[in-house]
Amino acid sequence: MYVSLALAREHINVISDAEVSDALLQMYVDSAEQQAAAYLNRPLNEVLDPIAPPDVTDPAGYAAAVRHAILLKVADAMDVRGTQIVGTSGMALPTFENILYPYRVGLGV
Q1: Nearest Cα to Cα of residue 31 among 72, 86, 89, 82
Q2: Closest CA to 99 of 55, 67, 52
C-alpha cells in the first residue's frame, strides 16, 4: 500500500466511517494504485516506498506527485460511483495522466 486509508479519507474529506466503509475505500485506493502503475509502465515500488504517511521530504519529488495522482483517482472514484455517460468523464483523469506522465518509462520514440 502506497496511500494509506487515513490519507485517502483526509483527501476526500470523509469524517465518519458511516460515509464510506474501509473496504470500499481500500478498493478505490488499490484500484488507483494499480492504474497508476499501469500508466507508469512500471511497479510503484520503483518510484515509491510503501510508507504511510507519505514522506514529504522526498528529494526527487516522485512520491508526492505520484501519491497526489493516486488520491485524485480515489476522489474521482468516490464522485462517480456509477456508470459514466460518454463525454462526461471525471475531471481527475486528465490531471491524473498529466501528473504521472513525466515519470512514465518505455514510451519509445
Answers
A1: 72
A2: 67
Contact 90, 24 (CB under 8 A): no
CB 25, CB 14: distance < 8 Å: yes
CA 25/CA 73 separation, integer angstroms: 12
Of 20, 18, 36, nearest to 9 by C-alpha is: 20
Residue type at 79 in one-letter notation? D
- Cell numbers at residue 100, please? 504521472
Cβ burial of 71 (10 Å; 0-12, 13-18, 19+) is: buried
First-to-last alpha carbon distance for the chain, in angstroms, is 33
Task: Please list the pLDDT of the chain residue by residue as tens digits (109 residues).
Answer: 789 888 899 999 887 667 789 899 999 999 999 999 999 999 998 887 655 445 555 545 577 889 999 999 999 998 876 555 555 555 555 688 888 988 888 876 6
